[in-house]
Amino acid sequence: MESVPPTLSPSRTTCGSLLRELQIIWDEIGECDSERDKMLLQLEQECLDIYRRKVEKTRKYKADLHQQLAEAEAEIAGIASALGEGFSSFSRGRGTLKEQVVAIKLILEELRSKKREKLKEFSEVQLQIVSICSEIAGSGQSKSYVDPQIHEHNLTAKKLGELKLHLQELQNEKHLRLQKVNTNISLIHELSVVMSMDFLKTVNEVHPSLGDPKSGPSRSISNDTLARLNGVINSLKQEKQERFQKLQDLGKRLTGLWNLMDSPADERKRFDHVTCLMSSSVEEVSGKGCLALDIIEQVEFEVERLNVLKTSKMKELIFKRQTELEEIYRGVHIDIDGDAARKTLTSLIDSRNVDLSDLLSSMDDQVAEAKEQALSRKDILDKVEKWQFALQEEKWLEDYERDDNRYSAGRGAHKNLKRAEKARLLVTKLHSMVENLAAKVKAWESEKGITFSYEKVPLLRTLEEDAKLRQEREEGKRKSREQKRLQEQLASEQEALYGSKPIPKKPLGQSNTMLGTPGRRIGTPGRYGFSGSKDRRESGRVPNIIPVNYVALPKDDSASKGA
């Protein structure tokens, strides 16, 4: 029976024991020494190869450790440079390579954590920058700002500060743009309210975010939005200007038609909101709906309605102006042939060859000219009225002084006495009054280049004729006084020759004037001098005592002086 070599447990197996076991097996096999040496040599070579591979593997592991250390050092240097932190004094320290690797990994992990925090901070700032840039650029250009590029090799505090400063500038610009957008929206709202336009529809056409009051900071602030808002505002302002101008023109036409047709105040009051625009500027118009299209349509309808009525009422207004013209001329004593003028107007209207508006405008011009002429005549007419009043008082005074009972204690006698005193004072001013009036009339005629007529007669001619008549009356009075003087002289001479005659006593209450003797008053002031009315009465009592052509014989000087 073949003997079996003892087996060794793996935990106690060594090269020597295996070699001894191999020797036993060779002995049992009967292997020759050459084979044994060859196999031993082969085993030795295989062992060397195993050791060599193991050494090479260990050497490579060592190199890997050195590589890890070098890479870690390079990464630490890169992160430190990117973070702006100095690690110039960094060293691996003492100890084995594994210990050094463990130590440097701790430092590297700490730096990596700092880098991640920095990257996160940079990313947040950059995202805000990209978001604001996207809002400013608008939806059409936002794609270029979707993926922010962060340079990991420059994560220093200086770079972060520059980014934050840029972010602050963009935030300020966003705030300004948002203010501008809100201001433009408010202006659009004001214009829309004035013109009764759909505000939400208008701003939503610019950008949907503008019509939502809850959108707030999320409203579009892009260049395109601002440009379109400015365009809408300019368009609305132009529309407002056109509507305002149109309403102003309609208001003027409406006012002209009202004045033309003498429309009542109640009818005009309905369009006060339109006529008030005539004295306003377009910037002052801010009332709700005051420039709405329905307002313009209402005014246009009213203007058309009045235009229809204007033609039917125009003839009435023209003749009303003619009546007004005649009243003005009549009030200032200017002669005008009203019947002929009315016939002419009727012929013009019936011929339909003249525009009634132009004809009415011509009548208005004539009325204005008549009022101006009446105003220019007012001063002279006032003086004419005073002159005529003075003439009336003069005539009354003459009648009053012819009354022999004017001094009787009758009813109202004291009033007549006061009036007579005032009349005498007024009559004394007649001469200067006429001279001033004539001077005024001549100056007026020189300025206007026309004759000043009063009751169809030139006033200067009237004054001249009155002066001539007054002169003739004064001459008659002078002759009457002269004749009376001669009569008195003759009576005195007769008394001297024949003696005085006894004067019979008059009953109480009779006049104290006697035939052939002067009365209490010799004369009364007339228009230019003294009135000879009483002289004429006394001279009339003795018409046959002496002829009118009697001439007294001259007396001696002493007698004449005594006379």
TrEMBL record:
Keyword Coiled coil on entry: yes
Alphabetical list of PANTHER family matching this protein: 65-KDA MICROTUBULE-ASSOCIATED PROTEIN 5, PROTEIN REGULATOR OF CYTOKINESIS 1 PRC1-RELATED
UniProt keyword list: Coiled coil, Cytoplasm, Cytoskeleton, Microtubule
GO molecular function: microtubule binding
Regions of compositional bias (Low complexity) in chain numbering: 516-528
Record Gene3D superfamilies: 1.20.58.1520
Subcellular compartments: Cytoplasm, Cytoskeleton
Family: Belongs to the MAP65/ASE1 family.
Ranges in a coiled coil: 55-82
GO CC field: cytoplasm; microtubule; spindle
Chain spans, region Disordered: 493-542
Coiled coil listed as a keyword: yes
Principal location: cytoplasm
Protein source organism: Cucumis melo var. makuwa
Single Gene Ontology BP annotation: microtubule cytoskeleton organization
Protein name: 65-kDa microtubule-associated protein 5
